[in-house]
Design a protein that fits this description.
Length: about 240
């Protein structure tokens, strides 16, 4: 699908000024240029154009509020100076999988004063000696390069943060789970109680039987004694 058509579909009957996030991954740009985007996207904060065949950013419109830009898996090798002109407030830029080979290619990013995170995974530049040290020196405003800072501390993951928040909010389901456990325990307990009652009943019946056996034994003993007395009386006679 062409980029222009994809953008019109993503608008979903909204005006460009109402759009804060726009994802057009895997569509196709004509002649490797940005198309369909205009200066009317004044509120756009997040733009993703992954694997769309871009080889130039020359036709990127002015996007003053854009903070996050995904451009991975394209054919970009230069023209990055356009970013500082059109998107001066970028804080996150992903250029992974492009044709960036030299430090001079990223030098144009020096004017992105708010840039905090830069990704250059799978670009030839990463094979340069002292690649990380050189980029951090060239772009002192960047805190995270390829997901890690200069001390190799990993960048915080916004998705992980969201999961943590969901986990906190998800205390309800956890509580439900505990309640289910309690219910199962109660059921087990009640079953156990029934078994105990049955055991007590059995035990009571055994006691009754023993008592009855004892009574019968005493009765038999008395009968024998009585018979013995009768025999003694007969002998006296």
């Amino acid at each position: 699908m062409e980029m222009k058509k994809r953008i019109s579909l993503e608008l979903r009957n909204r005006s460009p000024a109402e759009v804060a996030e726009l994802v057009v991954d895997n569509c196709r740009s004509a002649d490797g240029e940005v198309e369909g985007l205009t200066d009317e996207f004044t509120e756009l904060e997040f733009l993703s154009m992954v694997n769309v065949g871009l080889s130039s950013l020359a036709k990127l419109p002015s996007l003053p509020k854009l903070r996050k830009l995904e451009l991975s898996d394209n054919n970009l090798s230069g023209s990055l100076e356009t970013l500082s002109e059109k998107c001066p407030n970028l804080t996150y830029l992903n250029l992974s999988g492009n044709k960036i080979k030299e430090l001079s290619n990223v030098e144009a990013l020096q004017n992105l004063k708010s840039l905090q995170s830069l990704d250059l995974f799978n670009c030839e530049i990463t094979s340069l000696e002292d690649y990380r040290e050189s980029v951090f020196e060239l772009l002192p405003q960047v805190t995270y390069l390829d997901g890690f800072d200069q001390e190799d501390n990993e960048a915080p993951d916004s998705e992980a943060d969201d999961e943590d928040e969901d986990g906190e909010d998800g205390a309800g389901p956890t509580g439900d789970y505990d309640e289910e456990d309690d219910e199962e325990e109660d059921e087990d307990g009640s079953e156990g109680g029934e078994e105990d009652d049955e055991d007590e009943e059995d035990y009571g019946e055994e006691e009754e039987e023993e008592d009855q056996a004892g009574v019968q034994g005493q009765k038999r003993k008395r009968d024998v004694d009585d018979e013995g007395e009768d025999d003694d009386d007969d002998e006296d006679d």
